[in-house]
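Quick note —
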Amino acid sequence: MRVLVVDVDSLRPDHLGCHGYDRPTSPTIDALAAEGVRFTSCYASDTPCLPSRTALVSGRFGARTGVVTHFGDGQWYDQPAGGHDAATARPLVPRYLSRHGVHTATVSSFGDHHSAYHFSGSFTDAIQPTPRTEDEHAADVTARAVAWLDRHATDEDWLLHVQYWDVHHPYEDVAEDVERVRRAGWSPAWPDAEALAAQQGMTGPRSADLWPTPGAYGDPAYERQYDDWSIPDRFDSTDDVAHLVDGYDGAVRKTDREVNRLLDALAAAGVREDTTVVVTADHGDALGEHGIYAEHALAHPPTQRVPFVISGPTVTSGGRAVDAQVYQFDLAATLCDWFDVPVPDGWDARSLTPAIDGESFAGREALVCGHGIYTFSRAVYADEWVYIRIYHPGVFSHPGLFNDDSADGPAAGLELLHDLEVDPHMTENMLADRPRVAGEMRDRLADWERRTRTTRDAGGTDPLVHMAVESGPFLYVDPVELAALYRDLGRSDRQIRTVKRAGDFPL
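Predicted structure written out below.
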């Protein structure tokens, strides 16, 4: 059995042709989907990068592993064993497969970039693509992956994980690919001018009202970082949105071309038809939803819904879409099926094999997904609804959350409820209008929190709530610095008060 997992940072499924996008961003991935199966409702259990990839290689929720964010107490993996004892009770996925004869490898700078040594150390081969240690270009990643395939493609039983950064801003070397996707035309139907106007006055960086963080604003080094494809300081016109999305789509097209190079390498080795290919992402990016642009700052679908395409000999009939809700880390249990090994006790992952085989498959009735940067929050996904509980809002006042202009800060509200069928861009908070649905979603979250907290290895505490109480989500933005910048820019007194209060926000 041979498995190639392509992991694209920040890739939204709705910007792929196989998910209905009308720009030619992803011909290679679309072809894989046409001959394989794609899951339309796949969500990362924990976001952003470090929690997501930890869940992927552990098959477990961040509430159990302890990894719920990028910094502080919430970044450290709770090793189930101690000292030199092997972690046999809840082994990491690559390590577990290697014990059963599978040669596992990752081509990624992620382990170094996020101090995720539990991640890189779980693979037999952990290959750093370049000395850059982060944001290296896709072509350099592909070169190292192809070199590995040149040595091992014809071996039996291997798992190769290849990770690309390029869809994460800044978008570099994308001009040629932008021109290709622009030929299809496009103008943003949403956010339109009305939506952009409503988003002005919210607080927080990466927003329509202010995109750079305080430390980056006016910094020449920051400006140079975005020389290839600039991002506006504010989004107050549809032209600004179109420019951003052009850069994003160009980066998707650029990465898709590298995926094709990987497939060519498999074909050159004579194993293309014998290799299962999985294309997924650690998270997506908001492109205007809740006033956020080119960033993953909240537990909501733009951040947590990810592509999940499977193609190859494990798929019995191709070209199918599976709409049932699944977690991305369900890949862990599915890999066990593919390599014919039992799923260990203690994993939260469930096998997707019935869905891949075309059998009846209900998926999960509801999903609970946590988020741990810029805000500490969780989302519950059930039927057409998403319910978002914000444990700490950081410096953000999202449209639909803080509607009282007289409010000085986050005490104005900490919950969102959206009907994704009638309001896919989540512009209206339905919390007050649908109290029964809100109550059911709160109950789902409370039940999930009880179940995960009581079985977590380290003390039974919720690490996301712990981080909200202890530190707040201020890794990338300091409230005092942001308030000072707002004052310098002549922003409203309400914005300044909101941000100043954020640092003292109680749970």
